[in-house]
Amino acid sequence: MAKGKKMKPVFVCSSCGQVSPRWEGRCPGCLKWNTLVEEAPAQRVAAPGAPLDAVPLTEVDETALKRLSTGISELDRVLGGGFISGGVVLLGGDPGIGKSTIVLQALGSLASRGLTTLYVTGEESPSQVRMRGQRLGAVSPELLVAAETDAARVADALMKRSFALCAVDSIQTMQRADMSSAPGSVAQIRECGALLVAAAKARGIPLIMVGHVTKEGAIAGPKVLEHMVDTVLYFEGEGGQPFRVIRAVKNRFGPISEIGVFEMTGRGLAVVDDPSRLFLTERDTQVSGSAVVACLEGTRPLLVEIQALVSPSSLAVPRRVAVGVELNRLNVLAAVIERRAGLNLAGYDLFLKAAGGIRVDGPGVDLGVAAAICSALLKRPVGEGTVLIGEVALSGEVRPVARTELRVKEAARLGFKRAVIPRAGLEEARRVRGVEIVAVATLADAVEELF
Ligand code: TYD
Ligand code: MG
Fold first, then answer.
1. Are residues 269 and 288 in the same domain?
2. Residues 317 and 436 reside in one and the same domain
3. Does the Cβ of 137 fall within 6 Å of ligand 1?
4. Closest listed ligand to the CA of 173
5. Which of 253, 273, 293 finishes a domain?
6. For ligand 1, is residue 359 a contact (CB within 6 Å)?
7. How many CA atoms lie within 13 A of 74 on its CB side?
8. Distance 213 CA to ligand 2 centre (A)
9. Is 292 in the same domain as 266?
10. How remote is the CA of residue 266 from the centroid of ligand 1, in Å?
């Protein structure tokens, strides 16, 4: 840069991190409005003299990933088996969902095994943390707590002393004293994140950064934060319900399909060993508009009740509302029901809900969702002890899904007596004892069979 020439400020999108030389009302990257904020320009450094050190991949040492189990089985499961040394985890979720709780439980669990852990709190005082820790049984001399918001001091602490696990709660409260922008601003979050990640990586310390989420449900701060870390976990749950699900949306060290299921109790988050049972409790099987699906969460089958309500609409464009199920799936299935099963849904409001506050996904739930809607429309119950498995094609065909046998087995374990499945899965499903298998070729077949 020419001497004396003043560095121009840059504008950074608070949503996607796109950099723009001038302010614009709409981010050229993600097309969101009013997201560009001014930021001091980054100092450019000259390239150092030493050449790039590239080695053949064959000569790189293989190191088996060592996992640090937290002792909290459902947390280990979403992490892919436990924390990795130097692995950085971003944990997002709504306020009050239990982020601080699970983090403190993980730190406490390791500390109780004699491993030193560090909890950096930018939101609560150490005495508040202690009070919470006492409830959780996490108070231990090996669990250190620091009320600190200066990211440089935290990074420094990591460089000077080794910890089995460090948690920063939350990344939005962190700041760098050498930066003028306010804590929580895009620049602060990004720079503090980078500083902490670098320290954790340099010292091989697993790090959890707690992140708040915005109204839209994304982790507040630039997207770059998600790129910087190895694992991104989201806490899900519904207000008023004690169930909590931790889901991985990114994991460099494990699968992202596994979920961790917890229940919030008076003594913190308790692991739920049998999630299917949880999402099926207190069900009245004789009402219409209810169907049980068997979805697959990672390697684990999960039975969930789907509820549908169909009521005459007074609106020109009837309402379609889905909670815990993708709205697109509802719309597509509604169209298939109309065209291929010959049931008329026009003029009806349609509401759909996965019970227990869980989110179900994957094509395997199609048949059950369609059955719940048809059951509501026809005012006839699906029938006791019936589980539905299968993808519904636009043609109305019921297509096979992965691991039918596993899903039917889970249903059998929970006392289900009848499984409606795609014809192609018949042989597989027949291996399960004690369940009547009903194989269907089309949605119309299924409707006929059930109602
Ligand atoms: P918290 O972990 O503070 O949420 P976050 O850090 O995500 O904002 O969770 C707080 C909620 O959990 C609060 O509503 C109280 C409840 N809670 C329990 O029910 N039992 C407990 O043992 C603890 C510690 C919290
Ligand atoms: Mg908190």
1. no
2. yes
3. no
4. 2
5. 273
6. no
7. 22
8. 12
9. no
10. 9
Residue among 123, 244, 264 to mutate when testing ligand 1 (max atoms within 8 A of CB): 264
Q: For residue 386, which phi and psi values (nearest 5 degrees)? A: -110, 135
- Residues whose Cβ atom is located within 5 A of ion ligand 2: 100
Quick one: 208 and 313 in the same domain? no
Q: Are residues 289 and 256 in the same domain?
A: no
- Phi, psi for residue 83 in degrees, rounded to 5: -80, 150
Adjacency order of strands within the sheet including 19-20: 19-20, 10-13, 36-39
The pTM assigned to this predicted structure is 0.80
- How remote is the CA of residue 89 from the centroid of ligand 1, in Å? 20
Evaluate the omega torsion of the peptide bond into residue 170 and state whether it is cis, within 30 degrees of 0. yes
Express each pLDDT in 171-228 by its tens digit.
999 999 888 888 888 888 999 999 999 999 999 999 999 998 877 767 777 677 888 9
Q: Are residues 20 and 149 in the same domain?
A: no
**Whether residue 145 sits in one domain with residue 72:** yes
Q: Is the CB of 135 under 6 A from ligand 1?
A: yes
CA of 236 to the centre of ligand 2 (A): 14
Which of 90, 101, 235 has most ligand 1 atoms within 8 Å of CB, for mutation? Answer: 101
Rounded Cα–Cα distance for residues 166 and 176 (Å): 19
Cα dihedral 151, 152, 153, 156, rounded to 10, equals 120
Say how many domains are in the chain: 3
Residue the block writes with tokens 């089309």: 442
Q: What is the predicted pLDDT for the residue at 2? A: 45
Q: Give the separation between CA 30 and CA 269, rounded to whole angstroms.
A: 37
Ligand 1 pocket check for 240: Cβ under 6 Å: no
Query: Which residue segment(s) compose the domain that 31 sits in?
Result: 9-41
Pair 411, 303: CB distance under 8 Å? yes
What residues contact residue 159 under an 8 Å CB cut-off, 6+ apart? 199, 202, 203
Structure confidence at residue 284 (pLDDT):
67
Site of tokens 């790189």: 60
Reported for 95-101, long-range contacts at CB under 8 A and 24+ positions apart, including other chains, are: 95/212, 97/235, 97/236, 97/237, 97/244, 98/235, 98/237, 98/244, 98/262, 98/264, 98/269, 99/169, 99/170, 99/210, 99/235, 100/124, 100/132, 100/169, 100/210, 101/132, 101/136, 101/264, 101/268, 101/269
